[in-house]
Amino acid sequence: MSVPTGFKRLAAAVSAVVVGGLVVLGVASYLVSVDAARDAVTAEVRSVTGLEPTVRGASTLSMFPSPRVSLGDVALAGYAEDSSPFVAEALVANVRWLPLLTGRIEIADIALVRPHITVTFDAEGRSNWSPLVDTLARAMRPDPQVEPRTLSFSEIRITDGTVVLREPGRAVDETLEGVELSLAWPSIAKSFAATGRVTWRDEPLDLSLAISDFPAALAGDTSGLKLRIGGVPLKVAFEGAMSMRPSLKIDGTLAADATSLRGAMGWISGRPLYGVGLGRFAVKARTNVVSGTVALSNLNIELDGNAAEGVLTYGLRGRRTLQGTLAVDTLDLTPYASAMRLMASDSRDWNRKPIGLDWFDDLDLDLRVSAARVLTPQTRFGRTAAAATLRDGRLVVTVGETHAFNGVITGTLAVDRTADGAAMRSQLALKNVDLETCLAELIGVRRVEGKGNVLVSLDGTGSSVLGVTRTLNGNVSLKAVNGALLGVNVEQLLRRLERRPLAGSADFRSGRTPFETLTVVLKITQGTAHADEARFEGGNVRLAVGGSASVPARELDLTGTATLLAASIEQPPTFELPFFVQGTWDDPIMLPDTQALIRRSGAAAPLLDAVSADKRARDAVRSAIERLGGSDGAATLRRLGVPVPVPETAPEGDQATAAPPPEPAPPLAEVPTR
């Protein structure tokens, strides 16, 4: 056969097919009217859903490129008289060819254009669409006595839809926008699949749902379940089984991860969460959901670089609750350091940042954590066991044991949310700890070294750590052995002043003073600490201190007596010196009692009588100055804060022998004497 002949036959075949198709289209359009097609589609929807469809717009029947019936402005009347669970801009039903040629309408699939679907849940968990589920279950359930109802269509596509989820009892009202879904239940299989994309709270999410036994799931029996949710805030994957009788039960493996747990929690809750930490998050666990409670076993969780194992239980019904036990190898608290910091960034003032406890109202907590190591920016803690409970706006953290500062810490910390901040109460026992690092990291004091025990019982209220210190009440005791007082060498100072009482050039803020025992007992009232007992016992030195300290200002106002002990305990002390300590906790100033030094100085002692007795002032001052070395002695007295009278000038007529009047001395700083 020649090529031209072949082309002619092919053209004839194509023409015959086209003509046949046109004939079929013509016959089909003749056999089925638009009204008949509309009635058939609405009857099928009524049969499948149990809802009464109302077509309020125009209806059309199209044969090209495939037969389909389009119904405009369709609404489904709800099961309750005042409910309208479904409204669509258009319902398009694709019709099968062969039944259409016989004058029957069989729907292959349905497309919903811009539907608005409302799902409302009651207190028992049933929704306004539950009758639809019952209808589908009856339609798909095989019954040997009754011929099973076969759904004529097995796919529904939703384009640019909106789904509203409501639960009035829990004040839940959520909207899913931009819904693009394909729902399919193939007639040759028992499975159900839904895939597509939705937008929730301005975040697009990719969805994938698969039910292995759709008839069993509709009947409430056990069926396989796979769920995938993917988006920027959160990714979730679940694979397991579910059932609805007698109540919802889900069992399987859950995996989830988020670049920021704080961001994901804020997105889910609908309000931003402020603070630090709660960054990178991942979890994988065996999951069981029963009656609104999610139980996670064989749990592996990662948060901010910390990996833990254990179990967690999360309650969804009523008030949210979280319970569990976690074990961590290394717990790094560095991401949360600023939230737990007592001191400001300069380590010289208390933290002034507001204490935020808004999340106390949203959750009940009962969590136990054990760790082999705990890290903070300043400290490494050893084996630690702690528990945290949060109920009715009250957080209680109980430290069963933590190895820190080469010792052991136990105790409790309770925090209550108040209208203007927080109320705190602490009971802590620090046993055999390294005082230098312990006091430096807890309260910023770097003046004591050695091993000791610290007992703390404090309470206060305020909107910040600084505010709490202003209302602080309680008791603090410290007992230490074999350590040293840093920043001052008391023995060297006493020996120098014993030899030269008026050695004004002595440096009182350098060196260290070893001690054998140190006992400090403080009673704190409204932010002021009073020293009930403060004793320092060294090999050659003994100190006794009293006075007060301001906790908010971190300032000292102390007086005491430093005693230089004799070589033998039977002998009396060789030298005793009253002193006072003022200034900040970080850099205190220790000064001796000026009057005591003057009394001990044989040259300057008469000045005390001179100050109190004007009639003998001239002779006493002149004698003291001469014994101290003339003008140098006067300068020494002025440096110590002792007023020195100016010698009288010569009488008139003897101007040649009169000494020139001295220049007036600059005003002297007042030096307190104790």
TrEMBL record:
Keyword Hydrolase: no
Region annotated Disordered, chain positions: 639-674
Domain of life: Bacteria
Segments passing through the bilayer: 12-32
Keywords: Membrane, Transmembrane, Transmembrane helix
Residue spans of biased composition, Pro residues class: 659-674
InterPro entries associated with the record: AsmA, AsmA-related
AsmA domain ranges (all copies): 13-167, 348-530
Keyword Repeat: no
Protein name: AsmA family protein
